[in-house]
Amino acid sequence: MREMEKKIRTRIAPSPTGDPHVGTAYIALFNLAFANHNGGDFILRIEDTDQNRYTEGSEQMIFDALHWLGLDYAEGPDVGGDYGSYRQSERFDLYVKYAKELVEKGGAYYCFCTSDRLDNLRERQKAMGKAPGYDGHCRSLTKEEIEAKLAAGEPYVIRLKMPYEGETVIHDRLRGDIVFENNKIDDQVLLKADGFPTYHLANVVDDHLMGITHVIRAEEWIPSTPKHIQLYKAFGWEAPEFIHMPLLRNSDRTKISKRKNPVSLIWYKEEGYIKEGIINFLGLMGYSYGENQEIFSLQEFIDNFNIDKVSLGGPVFDLVKLGWVNNHQMRLKDLEELTKLAVPFFEREGYIANFETYKKIVAIQRESAQTLKQLAQESKTFFEDEYELPVVTEDMNKKERKSVEKLHASLEDEVGKKSIALFLEKLNAWKQEQFTAEEAKDLLHSLLDELQEGPGKVFMPLRAVMTGQARGADLYNVLYVIGKERAIKRIHTMLDKKGIQL
Questions:
Q1: Which residues of 262-271 are buried (b: 16+ CB within 10 A; e: fewer)?
Q2: Does the annotation place 258 within a ligand binding site?
Q3: What domains can you pick out in the chain, each with its CATH number?
Q4: pLDDT by residue (tens digit) across 423-443?
């Protein structure tokens, strides 16, 4: 159901404090889908007021990560817009102006308490078993006392004047009404002694001035929301609609963290997850696309989006499921594009080939690989023409041990030798250097017909001399990729190593 009335505007506001987080992409996806589905605008704002945590280069990494994923914003620091600046560090004058305006309206007050007094207050509250919080000491200062302290140059902060009585109600789109008792909410600092705004002031001022109609953010911000609602009331502004998304969880249901799960979007890109896989997976986090469909594109997600279908159960960020989704998206992706993405991963492994050869390998390996990195790492068979047969080791299970033993035995078996000899004969008689996949398959199947033996007897020795592995890529695919001359060379090299006469 599309939203009506005024134009919808949503935003994300990450802090540039390190690698861009998967949680940022998750919240960005739902903000973008909600805005775009309803003909609105999705914007990016950088919340960089905490200079102590600022990380050089992090802002650009946020831009790059969102653009990589296709989560393109209509306005932001790097694309401009009518509501800029979109960096909070460039809006300090606004925050000072509005903080002082709020004091004049009676919604905030100057606080001159020293650090020593606040430390002592916290210690007393702790000793008495009370929750820490400001005691309102400066709320009762007279106008004359305030003016005298300001004239004397005493340091101050500006605090929100929370009501002592009554309740603040969050009308959350997903959760219904969430009620907070006002007397349990601290008088939040809005403007710090150094003139820097806190998150709460900057957030509300920016959302109002930028025309944000819906605040879609993680549920961890619920405790801050009553302060924001009171700020809107104190300014006399209309508050946006609040929608608090469920947090991404580790498998043990704790909040996703780098101690238990990779959280950097850069890590996922470098591991070879493609953008379609990441977006598709994040779209499944706490959301049902419908009709048991789990594979979809970003545009399909936007077209079918309904914010009211978000589940609050706490979605588990499961890397196994991500791999499954990414594999599906790799198989759906245009082969040319996927190959271009895969080439750096091949090169990282030291596997060098022309683009057409890469493309053949990608077409084969993407059927089972879960990432581009895995695709490249498991392509050794197509690149290395010299290899040793595996040997039985103590850590092998029974099935693995049996496969290796069969591989070795197949080269001593008379049927195995006949299979290799006939295969060489057919390769030498082949007129072209290359095979199509179908031609390679037909050639191999012709061995079964002529030798009147089963696939195990015929193909195991060929696998030994062609790949050196008991299992792996289909033999016809290996032949299709490496061609006639490399196949012949591989066979003779292995036969010489093993001292086998045909």
A1: ebbbeebbeb
A2: yes
A3: 1-76+246-332 (3.40.50.620), 90-245 (3.40.50.620), 398-498 (1.10.10.350)
A4: 999 999 999 999 999 999 999
